[in-house]
Amino acid sequence: MAIRYYRSKTGRMLASLPNGEMIDVSNNRCKIVTDDPSSSLSSLNQYGGPSGSSSAREKDKFDECNQLSSNDYSDLSNFESLPLVENIDSIKCSIARLSKIKDALAEPNEDFFTLISKIDLKKNVDFFLKVLENVLRDERKQVSLRLMSEDDVLSEVEPDAVPNEVRNWLSMTFTRSVSNMKKKAEDKPKFKSVAQAIRAGIMVDRMLRRMSSSLESNVPAQVSKVLKTLNDWNFEVFAMNECSDGQALRYLGFELMQKFNILSKFKIQNLVMQNFLEAVEAGYSKYNNPYHNLIHATDVLQTTYHILNNAGLMSWLSSIEIFATFVSAIVHDYEHTGTTNNFHMQTRSEIALVYNDRAVLENYHISATFRLMINDSYNIIQELTREEYKEFRHLVIEMVLATDMSFHFTQLKTIKNMISLNEVIDKPKALSLLLHCADISHPSKHWPLHEKWTNLLVEEFFSQGDKEKQLGLPFSPLCDRNNTPIAQSQIGFINFIVEPSLNVMGDMIDKIFEQILSEEQSRTSKSDLNDSSSASEPIKKKPIERPWAQYLTENKAKWQVLAEEEKRKKEQENGEKFSNEKDDKNDGELNKHQMS
């Protein structure tokens, strides 16, 4: 290894030998560079360097420079032996080098800046950056791998935490693992046109729509009264539907579109918006579902609005994003069949075949909505520019697909990682989680609403179970009306699905607001620099309300009491069944004895 030379700020010349010693060679007449340390030393001694016969003064210089070697920085200039950035040793090497630089900078040390050049220092920094970039790439890969493993949350649930029936329902509904089904040879896929059925309904409805009067001038007084409570977390959606004669969705949808100037912004005629909302209501009434109907859509729309508005996030969204969010909430279960995706796959329904068993209903809701808007009478997006349409469609597709419960854990992990890695929150993903949370939010409303929604959902599940029984299929979880622990299912639903989701959403909103605040403060600082006379008020962070927390706790406590009652009732029924079986056995033995 060659000898390195450095010049100090005082003008003295220093030599760094391969063995780590530093020698002052300022008075040498000749400086020889060689790979042989002994040769270098002899050459230096020959020309007046520090040798055994040197003067005391020269020896003092040598000792002073030799002392410098205890803080040797020569390795910071050695780049030939650096490990590859992909190697774990690169991290250890970076730590060692950074520690040495930190120690040198911690105390005044003029020698450091003379012993290592700016070029070498920059090379060290470049190496550190490459190592960090590689670590970040590896971390992102690990995040992706963790996102792929979405069943881990349920796998950590203790066996005795929930009944098997509830565990099976959570697993089947909120993960994408579907067991392989045996296909019957006689069942052949039959692809029929979904568009024909929709167009037939549109033709019949069109004549009725033209006869309708404008909603804007004909809002019943009772409906207006309920709409004034739009900002309440416990919005009385059933009362709204009753006083609107079963037209809650069209009134609320129209109200929100007007409230945020969507109609004027995108040149939507009042009649076209009214026709669209009426057609969507008709689609929700197609199968007479107890739960997945227009009241549920109205509830999800109001909850979505409440979360965004009360968090102060409406200003965070553009007009097209607000429009797409409201439409997504309105149509997210459009023409729902009242049965689950798993039921469609088990029965090999037409839409399961069309959408290849992937987010079957969610894909259908989106497709049916955009097919509806092909007709000019319902086309609320006909005046959008090409870019606006592209963004609108992208948002609606992403948001509605995210309501597929099997994507639940993936969604939560994606947002959690954005928060933990301090990344900018992606708007489409944030809005998708928000809509998903609104879709499953009824356990977070006060008990009268939550209990009513639970009874309606259970009845819809039982109706599916009746169909499964009729078709000779095994019962889907929670669909057997004679063997379903309702209270336990709701406790599991709240503990493992609803509460974690709403907590992550709350954390996400906090993070979004922090980012908004940071951007506004940055803009304010720049403005103050440009105009020193401006005296803008400091931006205050709005406290994020979490109204759901209280009701989740209260509802869970009520279900705990009911779960104990369920358990006692079940034990009593099992005891009576055992007693009857025992009596029947004794009677049989007595008859047998009498006959003998």
UniProtKB/TrEMBL annotation:
Binding residues for Zn(2+) 2: 333
Top-level class of the enzyme under EC nomenclature: hydrolase
Active-site residues per Swiss-Prot or TrEMBL entry: 292 (proton donor)
Protein name: Phosphodiesterase
Residue stretches of biased makeup (Basic and acidic residues): 564-596
E.C. no: 3.1.4.-
Cofactor: a divalent metal cation
Originating species: Brachionus calyciflorus
Gene Ontology BP annotations: signal transduction
Textual note on the cofactor: Binds 2 divalent metal cations per subunit. Site 1 may preferentially bind zinc ions, while site 2 has a preference for magnesium and/or manganese ions.
TM ranges: none
GO molecular function: 3',5'-cyclic-nucleotide phosphodiesterase activity; metal ion binding
Domain PDEase: 215-566
SUPFAM superfamilies: HD-domain/PDEase-like
Gene3D superfamilies named among the record's database cross-references: 3'5'-cyclic nucleotide phosphodiesterase, catalytic domain
Protein keywords: cGMP, Hydrolase, Metal-binding
Family stated for the protein in its record: Belongs to the cyclic nucleotide phosphodiesterase family.
Positions contributing to Zn(2+) 1 binding: 296, 332-333, 439
Pfam families: PDEase_I, PDEase_I_N
Region (Disordered): 36-61, 523-547, 563-596
Residues involved in AMP binding: 292-296, 333, 439, 490
Biased composition (Polar residues): 36-55
